[in-house]
């Protein structure tokens, strides 16, 4: 389905990124792990290449907040593969003070986190779109969240040290509209832009939180990262060639 397509996944060494790499390789695509951590990125590349018995995984060092880094990556991959078919905005850069409760968030930290994340997605999209425009086609997929669509369910965090950061809500909701903006702006350039908004992903959360979360879902509750694979492959493939500017929610009904 993704035969020989060259697909970049930013944050490809992370929890969701690793699943995206496996999904792409399973469909005979070429997965490019683009990550700011060179050591972990190469470890993930080597581990998955061995497990999947494939040569279709590559690694490139990337800082999505750096135009120079983005341009270097694009030139390198174009020289190596001759094309880039799709770009998945999946990285989640943030500063060390990210995630505080609303009244504890400093203005400077709020701005910095929006700059790093939403700004990084904009810059990465801008630079890859330049390339796609010259190439004559392209496909961008942004990873947003259900909390870019609905208000936070604060009650499920009660009794835990977890919270739903205000920065996250601002970034993810803006990202959905950025997706629509770009899809419209690129409409004469043969560049598609869509978003995926996952529900919660299992990652060692406390059981009390999981119990509250799961009651609001339809059947499974909290998802495994691999549950996003099918939606990603669909949006990357020609099966969705006329899907543009859309946000697909994958959350087992949590946001209903």
Query: Unreliable runs, pLDDT <50, ≥5 residues?
Result: none
Total strands: the figure is: 7
Structurally, the number of domains stands at 1
Strand order of the largest sheet: 3-2-1-4-5-6-7
CATH hierarchy, class: Alpha Beta
In the CATH hierarchy, the architecture is: 3-Layer(aba) Sandwich
What value does the Rg take, in angstroms? 18 Å
Order of helices and strands: EHEHEHEHEHEHHE
Estimate what percentage of residues fall within beta strands: 5-15%
Number of helices: 7
- Under CATH, the homologous superfamily reads NAD(P)-binding Rossmann-like Domain
Helix content, binned percent: 40-55%
Kindly report the average pLDDT value: 97
Instruction: Briefly note the structural class of the backbone.
Output: alpha/beta
Give the distance, in angstroms, between the N- and C-terminal Cα atoms.
31 Å
Note the overall shape: globular
Structural summary, described in words:
Helix 1 links the parallel strand 1 (6-10) and strand 2. A 7-stranded parallel sheet has the order 3-2-1-4-5-6-7, sandwiched between helices. The longest helix is centred in the middle third of the chain and has 29 residues, at 107-135. It has a single domain (6-250), classed as NAD(P)-binding Rossmann-like Domain (Rossmann fold). The model has no long low-confidence stretch (mean pLDDT 97). 42% of the residues lie in helices and 15% in strands. The chain has helices spanning 15-26, 38-52, 67-81, 107-135, 166-185, 207-215, 229-236; strands at residues 6-10, 30-35, 57-61, 86-89, 138-143, 191-198, 247-250. Helix 1 crosses helix 7, helix 3 runs parallel beside helix 4 (107-135) and helix 4 (107-135) packs parallel to helix 5 (166-185). It is an alpha/beta fold.
């Amino acid at each position: 389905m993704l035969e020989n397509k060259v697909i970049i996944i930013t944050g490809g060494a992370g929890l969701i990124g690793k699943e995206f790499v496996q999904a792409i390789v399973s469909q005979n695509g070429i997965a490019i792990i683009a990550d700011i951590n060179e050591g972990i990125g190469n470890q993930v590349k080597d581990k998955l290449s061995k497990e999947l018995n494939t040569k279709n995984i590559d690694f490139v060092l990337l800082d999505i907040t750096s135009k120079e880094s983005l341009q270097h990556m694009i030139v390198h991959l174009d020289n190596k593969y001759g094309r880039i078919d799709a770009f998945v905005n999946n990285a989640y850069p943030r500063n060390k003070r990210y995630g505080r409760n609303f009244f504890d968030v400093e203005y400077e930290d709020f701005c910095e986190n929006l700059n790093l994340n939403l700004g990084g997605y904009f810059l990465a999209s801008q630079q890859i779109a330049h390339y796609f425009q010259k190439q004559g086609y392209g496909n961008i997929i942004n990873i947003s969240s259900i909390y870019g669509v609905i208000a936070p369910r604060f009650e499920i965090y009660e009794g835990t040290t977890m919270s739903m950061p205000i920065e996250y809500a601002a970034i993810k909701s803006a990202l959905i509209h950025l997706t629509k903006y770009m899809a419209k702006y690129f409409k004469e350039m043969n560049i598609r832009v869509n978003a995926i908004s996952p529900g919660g992903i299992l990652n060692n959360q406390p059981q009390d939180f999981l119990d509250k979360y799961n009651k609001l879902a339809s059947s499974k509750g909290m998802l495994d990262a691999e549950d996003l694979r099918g939606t990603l492959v669909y949006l990357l493939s020609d099966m969705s060639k006329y899907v543009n500017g859309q946000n697909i929610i994958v959350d087992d009904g949590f946001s209903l």
